[in-house]
Specification:
Elements lengths: L6 H15 L14 E7 L17 E10 L2 E3 L5 H10 L8 E7 L7 H4 L3 H17 L4 E5 L16 H23 L4 E7 L2 H5 L3 H4 L5 E5 L28 H10 L7 E6 L1 E6 L13 E9 H8 L7 E5 L4 E6 L4 E4 L3 H13 L4 E5 L8 H10 L9
Parallel strand pairs: 1-2, 1-14, 2-4, 4-5, 5-6, 6-7, 7-8, 8-14
Antiparallel strand pairs: 2-3, 9-10, 9-13, 11-12, 12-13
Helix pairs in contact: 1-10, 4-5, 10-11
Length: 388
């Protein structure tokens, strides 16, 4: 049974499948012909160094974020121009790497509804997107509108967002196809989307998916700020989970909404979330607690501190959810996070369901490429040497 394999058995299964692939035609392979590995890079106000990005281990980089002002795509941070230069230079190491700019995000989605409201305002945005992509020699645009028809971070929103979201992406695709012919290359469009049914109820995903290269499904942040502990990015739904959430459930909802499997890119977090004042019942899983803002840790910090000998934290594995978690009985602290074993399970899930690949938020959370290597090994076992 796939879900009950240990990590050693999982890796053996992955490696075994790589040998089997050489004996079967591409049409019968369980591995997508081109499984995407998409990394969001969030530099903020600093200049990236080429040496900090493992260009050979990704197929696509989404630089976060550009903003929307006066219906136009504009730079979000002071060093964006320099950083686009750094990222495009990585193609010397990996010629097939694609660099996109992601527009919006949780904080900068405030002007999407107004921009998408009319054909004229959408036309202004799309023209600016073409100029932006051309100026910085990028390969496309990622729309991270959080969220159409919903308030998000105190954003303007309206019922018309549902249809306007579709129109925006359709018109962007038409214009990018025209520009692509002129530039003699394909210009990518993608979207970052919410994992909840609420998102699907406020969009027309069966139509939208026709106009994008990938739907980057944000299957994380399912827990956080809650009054009880829980996995914020579990693969499967635990029977005791009061919220009944999981990555698998989100994927199934998207498939039922009409999104093609190869368009769905499964999102994973390179960070964990913590709770305090958690009693030891079930080692803290789904127990009452206080969500701790200072325990929003990236994987690098978790590995170097909480997983270190003598930290007081014990790692547990939830077989129902295929998720790890940590509990410190002395401090009554509970931490949910992603690790190589859980990502190996998710990679096999992506392969088994013929999804488009995996994406992660965000690159700097895994400074030693431990998680990225696990994704590479899981999705591209025949290219294992590339991840070394």
């Amino acid at each position: 049974m796939l879900r009950r394999l240990s990590i050693s058995a999982l890796l053996f299964e992955i490696l075994l499948s790589s040998f089997a692939m050489a004996r079967i035609s591409p049409g019968t392979s369980t591995v997508p012909n081109h499984a995407e590995i998409i990394g969001y890079v969030f530099a903020r106000d600093r200049v990236l160094s080429p040496s900090e990005i493992a260009a050979a281990k990704m197929t696509r980089i989404n630089y976060a974020f550009a903003d929307v002002k006066d219906n136009k795509v504009v730079e979000g941070f002071a060093h964006d121009a320099e950083n686009f230069g750094v990222l495009t230079s990585l193609k010397q190491q990996n010629p097939s790497l694609k660099i996109l700019v992601s527009v919006g995000g949780w904080t900068w989605s405030k002007n999407f509804s107004d921009m998408a409201l009319t054909k004229e305002t959408r036309k202004i945005f799309i023209a600016s997107a073409v100029d932006f992509v051309t100026k910085y020699k990028l390969d496309g645009l990622d729309i991270d509108w959080e969220y159409p028809g919903l308030e998000g971070d105190h954003n303007a929103f309206r019922p018309e967002d549902k249809e306007n979201y579709t129109l925006l992406l359709k018109e962007l695709r038409v214009r990018f196809d025209r520009e692509g012919r002129r530039l003699h290359k394909h210009l990518y469009t993608s979207i970052a989307t919410g994992g909840s049914l609420n998102f699907l109820q406020h969009t027309e995903m069966d139509k939208v998916q026709k106009y994008v290269d990938s739907v980057n499904l944000m299957t994380y942040d399912m827990y956080g700020g809650d009054k009880n502990t829980g996995h914020h990015s579990s693969l499967y739904t635990h029977p005791d989970d009061p919220k009944h959430v999981s990555s698998d459930k989100s994927v199934q909802n998207y498939l039922e909404a009409g999104v093609q499997p190869n368009k769905i890119v499964l999102g994973v977090p390179f960070y964990g979330k913590g709770w305090t004042d958690v009693e030891a019942t079930k080692n803290g899983l789904f127990q009452a607690g206080t969500s701790a803002k200072n325990l929003h840790l990236n994987y690098g910090s978790i590995a170097s501190t909480l997983l270190a000998p003598g930290s007081g934290y014990v790692r547990y594995w939830d077989y129902s959810s295929d998720s790890p978690y940590l509990y410190n009985a002395t401090t009554k602290t509970w931490v949910d996070y992603e690790d190589p074993e859980s990502l190996a399970h998710k990679a096999l899930y992506v392969r088994g369901h013929h999804l488009g690949g995996m994406m992660f938020w965000e690159y700097t959370g895994d400074p030693n490429n431990v998680l990225l290597d696990a994704i590479n090994l899981g999705l591209h076992p025949t290219n294992e040497a590339t991840a070394r």
